[in-house]
Design goal:
Blueprint (H helix, E strand, L loop, with lengths): L20 H14 L4 H6 L3 H15 L8 H14 L3 H15 L2 H10 L7 H16 L5 H9 L4 H24 L5 H5 L4
């Protein structure tokens, strides 16, 4: 676990958290996967129930079994939502994952700046457009928004999964932005070559 004070990675005036066994397990899993603990995890470790609940929800929406939403599409949604919300912590983290998936840092960079100028399939573009609308003005959605996804071949279950990924990242982005969570430099630097 990092011994950095939370004040170095957020706007909060807190020292390092005493991690519960459940939070330590999250830290271990994240370190094994990415080589570092995410700053947001170090902050939410001060509220172990929040840290474990957020981790469980993240796993449920990002690793749902038996779905047609691909890892690329899940990370695309994470990046589009995070770019809309100007959340550097999530943008850095999920761009690194998409760079790992695609091995194409230029494509990922284009998605980060403006997915509309990236080479996406019609299905991927429909998902990204849906993510923007949910993020900007979810109250304006109507049945025709789902029809656009169906027209690109998404099943009803895939639509649920897409909506859940989008909603989760809106939550995560807002929590990070509300607390001034700094992005991890390790994520920014990862998978660029």
């Amino acid at each position: 676990m990092s011994d950095k004070p939370v004040s170095e990675i957020s706007w909060l005036a807190l020292g390092p958290a005493d991690a519960t066994p459940q939070v330590s397990a999250i830290f271990d899993r994240t370190t094994q996967r990415f080589g570092h603990i995410r700053n947001a995890q170090l902050v939410t470790a001060h509220r172990p129930e929040l840290a474990t609940a957020q981790d469980a929800l993240s796993k449920a929406v990002q690793f749902a079994p038996d779905t047609g939403i691909t890892p690329f599409e899940r990370e695309l949604l994470a990046i589009v939502v995070s770019a809309e919300n100007h959340c550097p912590a999530c943008l850095f983290a999920h761009s690194a994952i998409l760079r790992e998936i695609t091995e194409d840092p230029v494509l990922v960079g284009r998605i980060e700046v403006n997915y509309r100028h990236a080479e996406l399939t019609p299905r991927q573009r429909a998902l990204a457009d849906y993510a923007v609308k949910v993020t900007r003005a979810s109250w304006e959605l109507d049945p025709t928004d789902l029809d656009k996804l169906r027209a690109e071949g998404l099943s009803e279950i895939e639509i649920i999964d897409a909506a859940a990924v989008i909603a989760y990242f809106n939550f995560s982005n807002r929590l990070n932005n509300a607390l001034g969570i700094a992005p991890n430099a390790e994520a920014y630097l990862a998978n660029r070559s």
